[in-house]
């Protein structure tokens, strides 16, 4: 897991970084509601200097889908 992304997700969702794994989904995180989704979007846009569109935002319902969305936007998260 990319450290920069894991740190951002941990901060947004109030989790420890070691809890941020690719299999983590919206259903696994009690605080991941529509308001937290927008917090996530703003945080990702600022951190990675990009703009997320509505289809991107809707698609991001797990850590793996966030990684895929960032990759589609040209963000290199490394291995």
Radius of gyration: 11 Å
Helix-and-strand structural type: mainly alpha
Order of helices and strands: HHHH
CATH superfamily: ACP-like
What percentage of the residues does DSSP assign to strands (E)?
under 5%
Mean pLDDT, to the nearest integer, reads 96
Could you tell me the CATH topology label.
Non-ribosomal Peptide Synthetase Peptidyl Carrier Protein, Chain A
| Helical residues, percent | 40-55%
By CATH reckoning, the class would read: Mainly Alpha
Poorly predicted residue ranges: none
CATH architecture: Orthogonal Bundle
Question: How does this structure look, described?
Answer:
With 79 residues, this protein is an all-alpha fold. The chain has a single domain (3-72), classed as Non-ribosomal Peptide Synthetase Peptidyl Carrier Protein, Chain A. It is 53% helix and 0% strand. It is built from 4 helices and no strands. The protein has helices at residues 3-13, 34-48, 54-59, 63-72. Helix 1 packs antiparallel against helix 2 (34-48). The relative contact order is 0.19.
List keywords for this structure.
Non-ribosomal Peptide Synthetase Peptidyl Carrier Protein, Chain A, 53% helix
Briefly summarize what is shown.
The protein is built from 4 helices and no strands. By secondary structure, it is mostly helical.
């Amino acid at each position: 897991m990319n450290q920069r992304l894991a740190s951002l997700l941990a901060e947004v969702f109030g989790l420890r970084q070691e809890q941020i794994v690719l299999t983590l989904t919206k259903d696994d995180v009690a605080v991941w509601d529509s308001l937290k989704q927008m917090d996530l979007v703003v945080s990702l846009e600022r951190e990675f200097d990009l703009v997320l569109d509505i289809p991107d935002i809707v698609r991001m319902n797990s850590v793996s889908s966030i990684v895929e969305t960032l990759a589609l936007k040209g963000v290199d998260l490394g291995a």
